[in-house]
Design a protein that fits this description.
The protein has 129 residues and is mainly alpha-helical. It has 6 helices and 2 strands; from the N terminus they run αααββααα. A two-stranded antiparallel ribbon has the order 1-2. Helix 1 packs antiparallel against helix 4. It is elongated, with a radius of gyration of 18 Å. The model has no long low-confidence stretch (mean pLDDT 87).
Length: 129
């Protein structure tokens, strides 16, 4: 699980809470309620229950988590891991841009040497991609 923001700076990067929720759900022995997710993410209680419910609802609408009723609450389980969420977000953003070649060129230009080498190795492994 990633490190929470420093005290006094409770803002998260876009998608960070989704990734944290998916990580918690993926590590759980079974589906969790929003309250259980919140307690695992933030035992001190600074994270609001409604933020967790909203995040879980969005993840369910995206098809990233399962949801089933358990009494008055829903229980959620992960269908994707955090890396899958980021990859999905990247694909969605790329699909919105008509000049994909320019976007990809600029993206590759921002990679550090290690990430660039990783990308090159992945493309060699999957030349059909």
């Amino acid at each position: 699980m990633s490190t929470p923001p420093p005290p006094g700076d409770r803002r998260r990067r876009p998608g960070q809470l989704e990734a944290q929720v998916i990580t918690v759900l993926g590590a759980a022995a079974g589906p969790l309620t929003p309250g259980e997710v919140r307690d695992l993410l933030d035992p001190d209680g600074a994270l609001s229950y409604s933020a967790v419910v909203t995040t879980l609802t969005r993840l369910h609408e995206k098809g990233s988590v399962t949801r089933h009723r358990d009494g008055r609450a829903f229980r959620y389980g992960a269908l994707r891991d955090a890396a899958g969420l980021v990859a999905e977000r990247m694909s969605r953003l790329l699909a919105e841009e008509p000049d994909r070649a320019t976007v990809l060129r600029r993206f590759v230009g921002t990679l550090d040497d290690r990430d660039e080498q990783t990308l090159r190795a992945l493309l060699r492994e999957h030349p059909e991609a």
